[in-house]
Amino acid sequence: MMAYPLEAVSRVKVLVVGDIMLDRYWFGEVERISPEAPVPVVRVARREDRLGGAANVARNIVALGAQASLLGVVGSDEPGTRVRELAREAGINSCLVADPETPTTLKMRVMGRQQQLLRVDFEETPGLACLDKLEAQARQLMAEHDMLVLSDYAKGALAQVDVLISAARVAGVPVLVDPKGQSYQRYRGATMITPNRAEMQDAVGRWSDEDDLQQRAQKLRKELELEALLVTRSEQGMTLFSERGREHTDAYTHEVFDVSGAGDTVLAALAVTRAAGLDWYDAVLWANRAGGVVVGKLGTSTVTAGELA
Q: What distance lies between CA 250 and its chain's CA centroid?
């Protein structure tokens, strides 16, 4: 594999648009079971907030040595303020739309003995007026960037994703999409989509073998007018489908500690290496390596250019 193209990556500008969330962790010790119910009692010793969703993609892009702008919807609340603070600290150019009617998406995790004991989610779909503002801002920002990344967590920020893809095509900006749901027609015209194994099955059904997967993947790629389609397959590695056919890379061997946010890291690495001039398969190799490193870390984390190099 060629050396990590750090100098070229440092000139790359990526616009990330999508569902922004705050990942909140409460770490503590578990020493007894509650007398009120058969559940552990966690004595919280430490609290930590991290950027999640599209914000974690942007955070990874900066960690990998490139420049990132982040566009999404947050509430006019304390978690929204934390998202802005964390983005600023990470060196991300924030272009956030504030929705006074909708809370910031928050995932709160209670951790004991390095294990997740409970997750509580707070989320609501953003209003139409906010989505119109997001679309208008995205159109303005596209021309200033080398790549558009759409991070879809099905929280509502990308309800008009087809409009964003069309605008990017007009602007001549490549589009990478991390998709959700079963209706992939909404991603028609993107440059690449990166479904995981379960998401691919939702889109094309269960395949019987590798030949069957190849036929289904290439059919979907042509129907959606994609340049490439990457299926991320966890311990089975990653499989790229393009005009060149099928190209597979085995999983980058690493101790798996926590897979949360690994897809964000893969998406970020694909974006920066492709925008830096690598072909799709070389970009996939670096994305595979980055994903392999990040699953060895706890919670939504980043991989740095130094770790890859």
A: 21
* 10-residue mean pLDDT series, the chain (309 residues): 85 97 94 93 94 95 96 96 98 95 95 90 94 96 96 95 96 96 92 94 91 95 97 89 94 58 87 95 90 69 75
Length in residues, the chain:
309
DSSP bridge partners of 50: 23
Q: 230 in a domain, yes or no?
A: yes
The answer to whether 263 and 54 are in contact (CB under 8 A) is: no
Other CB atoms within a 10 A radius of the CB of residue 206 amount to 9
CATH code, domain with 255? 3.40.1190.20
> What is the per-residue pLDDT for 300?
56
Q: Which domain holds residue 258?
A: 6-21+51-105+124-304
Contact by Cβ (8 Å): 186, 223: no
How crowded is the C-beta side of 133, counted as CA atoms within 13 Å? Answer: 14
3-state secondary structure of 128: helix
Active-site entry in 49, 209, 264, 282: 264
- Cα–Cα distance for residue pair 214/210, rounded to 1 Å: 6
To the query of whether residue 264 is one of the catalytic residues in this protein, the response is yes
Which amino acid does the sequence have at 7?
E
Q: How many domains does the chain have?
A: 1
- Structure tokens belonging to residue 58: 């942007």
**pTM for this predicted structure:** 0.91
* Residue of 86, 83, 34, 91 whose CA lies nearest to 65: 91
Indicate whether 309 belongs to any domain: no
Residue 37 resides in a domain:
no
> What is the dihedral sign for C-alpha 31, 32, 34, 37?
positive
* Residue 162: inside a domain: yes
What type of residue is 52? G
Q: How far apart are CA 177 and CA 175, in angstroms?
A: 6
